[in-house]
Amino acid sequence: xxxxxxxxxxxxxxxxxxxxxxxxxxxxxxxxxxxxxxxxxxxxxxxxxxxxxxxxxxxxxxxxxxxxxxxxxxxxxxxxxxxxxxxxxxxxxxxxxxxxxxxxxxxxxxxxxxxxxxxxxxxxxxxxxxxxxxxxxxxxxxxxxxxxxxxxxxxxxxxxxxxxxxxxxxxxxxxxxxxxxxxxxxxxxxxxxxxxxxxxxxxxxxxxxxxxxxxxxxxxxxxxxxxxxxxxxxxxxxxxxxxxxxxxxxxxxxxxxxxxxxxxxxxxxxxxxxxxxxxxxxxxxxxxxxxxxxxxxxxxxxxxxxxxxxxxxxxxxxxxxxxxxxxxxxxxxxxxxxxxxxxxxxxx
Amino acid sequence: xxxxxxxxxxxxxxxxxxxxxxxxxxxxxxxxxxxxxxxxxxxxxxxxxxxxxxxxxxxxxxxxxxxxxxxxxxxxxxxxxxxxxxxxxxxxxxxxxxxxxxxxxxxxxxxxxxxxxxxxxxxxxxxxxxxxxxxxxxxxxxxxxxxxxxxxxxxxxxxxxxxxxxxxxxxxxxxxxxxxxxxxxxxxxxxxxxxxxxxxxxxxxxxxxxxxxxxxxxxxxxxxxxxxxxxxxxxxxxxxxxxxxxxxxxxxxxxxxxxxxxxxxxxxxxxxxxxxxxxxxxxxxxxxxxxxxxxxxxxxxxxxxxxxxxxxxxxxxxxxxxxxxxxxxxxxx
Lengths: 348, 333
Ligand SMILES: Nc1ncnc2c1ncn2[C@@H]1O[C@H](COP(=O)(O)OP(=O)(O)OP(=O)(O)O)[C@@H](O)[C@H]1O
Ligand SMILES: [Mg+2]
Prior knowledge:
The complex is a heterodimer. By secondary structure, chain A is an alpha/beta fold. Chain A contains 14 helices and 15 strands. A five-stranded mixed beta sheet of chain A has the order 3-2-1-7-8. In chain A, α7 (about 195-210) packs across α8 (about 215-225). The longest helix of chain A has 18 residues, at about 90-105. Chain B folds into two domains: about 1-190, Reverse transcriptase/Diguanylate cyclase domain (Alpha-Beta Plaits, 2-Layer Sandwich), CATH 3.30.70; about 195-295. Chain B has a five-stranded mixed beta sheet, sandwiched between helices. In chain B, β2 and β3 form a beta hairpin. In chain B, α5 (about 145-160) packs across α6. The radius of gyration of chain B is 35 Å and the shape is flat. Chain B starts with 18 loop residues before the first helix and ends with a helix. Mean pLDDT of chain B is about 75; it is low at about 1-15, about 190-205 and about 295-305. Classes of the chains: A alpha/beta, B alpha+beta. Chains A and B meet through α1, α5, β8 and α13 of A and α9 of B.
């Protein structure tokens, strides 16, 4: 649609935001073209000395991670919902500050209204959605929460007979779309996701090369660079310190095995969602599996998933979201735009 | 033998007296001492570098230190009927029936008592010291309670400035007493304030001037020998006209300042208007160039043209229903 349609006028003075609130990363797509992502970490200086040193009252993302020793450090969105429990009050504040930060990074102008759609995990309980809503409300004029896999599918116009798989850090979320709002029975979640790959990789390397020294953070970076599940892949040789001295290690097989560790649980979950679907449409659903989330960037994952689906389910076709990082926020942004103005106004 | 002060320190829930009440009691005690001619001393005790300590180690430490100080004060003045209260960042301690010489010994006990206590800051033992300023009533001539406080305060300042952990007795009684007298005179300039054009209270800065003016007139006319009534009238009129003149001058300068500021504001407003105008023009130009080169200013993603749901959108009807479902779910929340 060209930029001169009458609908454009409706947008005058309104900034639409699509926000994907994730365990490991929070992203925003804004109608002013800004797209930003920040690791979902929040930290507050522990004491006066730390505050003087850091010269900030609150730190976000990788900066917070880096300075975490002098911070009260939060990862406020365990499993994509605001953590409750011992520190729940502080977590809620950390989540609110994180949402505030991502909104600031979208650079809203002072004179515009800000309307935001936030993607929350599909299985989020109503009270955690409420917590997210309240946290966001402090920073925007109007806000709506919608299910995260739904927003991914909506962004791609794949509203019916599609199986969306969002591979995040903490969880892999599966959701089947069939032309209505997905319900609880349309969704499955397991914890075979990015963090699981990191842990598996760590275990495998420790077994094979006990002398190598590394942290899980180092492995995560290595994984993001070399992740691959293909049978034939270029050898992965990385330098890891041994007693402080960088030493090359071949971890090709370890990478492959670790990345593959999430595939078979994923196929099981797919089988379950397909098996409980209207038999008439099962084939269609099998033929439209959509991979999104940071974990979908594993090379060869679509091919490997298809191969295992063929083995276990007798067929399957897998596509990837073009932009795994912004898939959720782009979809949320699209929902924000498509939402009739009067709905937005009613919620103000 | 009461240390009523303890009740007035911050943090105590059982406050019997407020600091103001205790100060009042001190004043009463002081007046009594002046009337019956018995000696008393006033000590002002302040913890050295208290605000830095608080910044570094938190207000908990501050409370601890103040608590310790109170008990040191209590033991150091055990035999006397002293009164203590918190004054800003120091503790005022009034000890009646104590001669000037006795105050030094008492201060020494307090200093030693504090030095003997070890505080824990971040796990390290730390010594915290105090500074003390003292004043007494053993002197001829005028003396008010305020002067006593000021002399002790001066002593505390000097003690702190020379490194703390010491006792200083200042001797500036006369200085403070005179200054107070001058201030008093300045505060009540005209003999009949009600007759003055505008109440002096509205022009606090002019009061001392008025006092000087009054003296000058008296001098000039040798008023001492004239009829008292005429004097008063002349003085009143001169004072009134001087006041008028000063008022006008004050108004004039304020007006000038105001118009200067107004001018600056207008200038800035014009500048802002200009800038936002050129910003608008730049934005429009940018739009034009983008349109000419058919650049999409929207979100460069799978979903490229973010422009709101149009009737021609794919599955427009379905999307409409979905939107209202999302909306309803959020309304419910
Ligand atoms: N190139 C890559 N190859 C493999 N994994 C990757 C790659 N890039 C990122 N990841 C992994 O993707 C995960 C983060 O994905 P994403 O940002 O979608 O998570 P999230 O939405 O924050 O988490 P969740 O959905 O669990 O709340 C991390 O585990 C990260 O290591
Ligand atoms: Mg996610």
